[in-house]
Every structure is written in C-alpha cells, then in structure tokens.
Amino acid sequence: MSKWLQAAKSHVSPPDKTDFTDKTPPEDAREEVLSVLSVLSGAAEMSNACPASNSPARELIEALESDMDLYAEALRIHGPMSYGQAMGVLGWGATRAGQAETGLRKAGRIGFNRLGRAVLKNDEAVHDDQL
Fold this sequence. Notes:
Blueprint: H1 3-11, H2 29-49, H3 56-78, H4 83-90, H5 94-106, E1 110-112, E2 118-120
C-alpha cells in the first residue's frame, strides 16, 4: 500500500450511528393542538347553526334523489333498459347511472326482467308481464 492510502485509512473513523433527530416536542405543540381543537369545535358549532338546506351533504342527497327520478323518467319513456343503455339515453357516466339504478332498486321502485333490464314496478304504471 502506498503511504498516502495508509494515511487516509488511518484517519478514517467508522461511521457514527448516533441519531441526531430531536425527539423532544416543541414548547408550543400543546398550543397548536389546542388551537386545532378549538377550530374543529367551532366548525361543529357553526354546522349546527347553519340551516340544513345549505349543507353539502343535503345538496348531494337531493341531487341523488333527482338522479333517481331522472332515471325513472327515462325508464318510463324508453321502457326496460340496462344502466349501460341509460348511460347513453341520459348522457351520464357508468357510476352515476349505476348509483341511480341501485337507489331505485333499494327504494323498491324498479325490478329486473328476465333479460336483466330495469323495469319500473306496478305502482309506476308498468305491467307485470315486463318483469
């Protein structure tokens, strides 16, 4: 070995495995948690004060009910169809049409004929022979 390599190896120490990360919480950590909790509790109080009609969840529920009504109207006009056919008729995507069909089925407003197409139930002017 050259004397330069020997000198370099003699001055190289093994890697230090000391963890220098600071594990102590900052002094203001409790204040930050308390401020977050106060904001969350304030939001809960505000949501109780706001009327239900302005709630995004309420708007979503109303939109889904109207989707079910639009799907039912398409079935009334066009007759039995799959949700794929309803997608084309209504200009919707698969998820929206499928969710509306599932909602109508759970509500008991539609049934499925032997071809697997959705058919409105008797209370919505559909004959038993279509089921």
